[in-house]
Amino acid sequence: MKKSFWEAGHRPTLIAAFLYFDLAFMVWVLLGPLGVAISADLGLSPAQKGLMVATPTLAGALLRVVNGLLVDRIGPKRTGTIGQLIVIAGLSVAWAFGVHSFAGILALGVVLGFAGASFAVALPLASRWYPPEHQGTALGIAGMGNSGTVFAALFAPTLAQLFGWNNVLGLAVIPLVIVLAVYQLMARDAPGTPAPKPLAAYLSPLGSGDAWWFMLFYGVTFGGFVGLSSSLTIYFNDQYGLSAVTAGYFTAACVFAGSLVRPLGGAVADKVGGIKSLSVMYVIAAIALVLVSSAPASAVAALGLFVVAMLAFGMGNGAVFQLVPQRFRQEIGVMTGLVGMAGGIGGFYLASSLGLSKEATGSYQPGFLIFAGLALIALGGLSAIKKRWRMTWGAAVQGVRI
Predict the structure, then answer these.
(1) Cα 239 to Cα 220: distance, rounded to the nearest angstrom
(2) Domain range summary for the chain, segments of one domain joined by +
(3) CA distance 304 to 306
(4) Which CATH number is 13-188+205-396 given?
(5) Nearest CA among 26, 15, 35 for reference residue 236
(6) Three-class DSSP category at 369
(7) What does the pLDDT profile of the chain (402 residues) look like in tens digits?
């Protein structure tokens, strides 16, 4: 990595944004790795399992818009602090009193949505410190907080087996409190932040078709990543009979791949252009999902295909957010919220549709095939608008390839 990158921004804030995002994502998808134990305890159907793991994703998607507005009005550091306190309080209450019903687990999922909304805080917190030529790399590093989902998949099933799944909720509070303290010490809002605007002005980007395109593109890349992150433990358990712990390890391998390459995706997009990079990722993801829909004969074969899909989605996430700050530099807070909301909705759709597909047809195949089709639709849209983008706002950004 070039030395000029580290000199261009504020390293402690970048590290704080990553750590906050990392731990927030760990608890955001916590119900997925705990899903086998929870569903056995509460007697959930396949559709209920899908809705259980999808609820935090949908709640996080909607709350990202709220966080995007707050970031532009009170700053990312304060917004992040509020969200962390809500999640810590919610997990503490759930652990102390227990969760004994499907309605209760859905309520907990809504609270965990505040952790998923961290996306709309961590990325602007880092982005505002870096110039255009380093946006892909900076947001890739901050966005690598997706890797928190690896910790959930690796440790939650084992801890649930040892101590019970409800006690895992209390154990999760410990690292959250530590990271909150680090965040308070290291994070700083960037100077030169735009002055707060009237509330209605924050939604003005929705008047641009470009905003809707970005929402579609991220709905597929991030939706694929978080939807699979939430669902794969249950999938490997149902489809191949793996134990909850082994299924968690398989899920962790997939999630690790997708998280690790997010900064690489941003750096590649900085080098070759976000449009070209994103186009290739859609093709790879669609092929991998079509192949996995055929229910490979072994769990290892399925694992290989999921890793390929997650690599494509992870790099695609980095590519999308190499482009967004170039087009919406002055509205990066609210655009992060809107685009992030679309990503969360994509994840909700994938996770819930897999459960519905399994219950309705006895197979996960329709859910995977439809999402592969969405990746191809996004590819078609990107192909249709790329020339206009390069000739308009892309041409106005000096020294940056889109």
Answers:
(1) 24
(2) 13-188+205-396
(3) 6
(4) 1.20.1250.20
(5) 35
(6) helix
(7) 444 666 667 788 888 999 999 999 999 999 999 999 999 999 999 999 999 999 999 999 889 888 878 887 888 999 999 999 999 999 999 999 999 999 999 999 999 999 999 988 888 888 787 777 676 677 777 767 777 888 999 999 999 999 999 999 999 999 999 999 999 999 998 887 767 767 776 678 888 999 999 999 999 999 999 899 999 999 999 999 999 999 999 999 999 898 888 778 888 888 888 999 999 999 999 999 999 999 999 999 999 999 999 999 999 998 998 898 888 877 776 787 788 889 989 999 999 999 999 999 999 999 999 999 999 999 999 999 999 999 888 887 777 788
Q: Which has the closest alpha carbon to 171: 94, 275, 81?
A: 94
Report the amino acid identity of residue 269.
A
Residue written as token pair 């597929």: 220
Going from the C-alpha of 262 to that of each of 255, 313, 355, the distances in angstroms are 11, 8, 27
CA–CA gap between residue 309 and residue 311 (Å, rounded): 5
Residue 298 carries which side chain, given as an amino acid letter?
A: S
**Residue 198 and residue 311: Cα distance in Å, rounded?**
40
Q: What distance in Å separates the CA atoms of residue 333 and residue 17, rounded to the nearest whole number?
A: 14
The 10 Å CB-count burial string (b at 16+, else e) for 349-388 is bbbbbbbbbbeeeeebbbbbbebbebbbebbebbeeebee
Asked if residue 95 lies in contact with residue 167, where contact means CB atoms within 8 angstroms, the answer is yes
Residue 276's CB is within 10 A of a number of other CB atoms, namely 17
The reply to whether the predicted model has a pTM over 0.90 is no
